[in-house]
Fold this protein.
Amino acid sequence: TIFSLLFGFHGRIDRRQWWLGMAIVATAASSAIIGIGLLKLHPIVFLPSALLSTFPVFALGIKRLHDRDMT
């Protein structure tokens, strides 16, 4: 599932799944940045969305390292 792809640390993912997950994270982060910019909110509002987008990146990276037998 998408949830386990982005938020789970167990298992292995191939290159295609890694790119899919990174595309999802990049789209969500870009949408948050654009939304904050359009609403002219204070830049500190960006901090929670930046922190939330780092967790899936770590999860994807760790699972990709599992697939490459580097952990």
Observations:
- The mean pLDDT is 89.
- The chain is about 75% helix and 0% strand.
- The helical segments are 2-7, 15-38, 46-67.
- The CA atoms of residues 9 and 62 lie 7 Å apart.
